[in-house]
Write a structure and sequence with these properties.
Rossmann fold, 3 helices
Length: 196
Amino acid sequence: MFKPLRLIVVAVGLGVLATACVKTEVTTYERVSGTAVDAAYLKPGTDFSRYSRLYAYPMEIYFPDGAQIDDGDIERIRDIFHDAFLTAIGDDFPVVDKPAEDALGVRASLVDMQTSQTPSDLPQSLALLVKSGQLTFLMELTDSKSGEVLARAADQEKAYQDPASAEIMHEGMEQAAERWATIFRGFLDRNLTKQN
């Protein structure tokens, strides 16, 4: 949702035919320089201007195995990010509840890597983008109708500190969420077609 210099995604056909043929498809994503995030990859030829609305997938949150985080904290973190992003987006880019031709799919993941231990349920495609000791925000942009991945980005939060309490953790998450929401809004303003 990558290799350091160039991301290569390989999709292998699920069915094995009697002839034992397997179809392999390779899509290359080019690293984008000069962005506000640590790493951004874009499928060549992508035109975001055909999108004017957003389709949001539920945010995924990953913590290292054994982390003392309860369900209430996870829901509060989701709410913090939900509120920050909706505030930043405003009414210019409506969020729809189902895929549509003009809706850009947005999948966000948060990985708390305050320790060196990688969460065991973290997909390999995400594990390649995170660093130990960092809170990492990942975003994948797709065509909501086809599911085609158009871009991926990763950013480590520099100001976030290992929280001494749940309240400090939430304050740090609020600051991180506002920063990332502002960056995302800037991307939308530069690339998508606004409503109105």
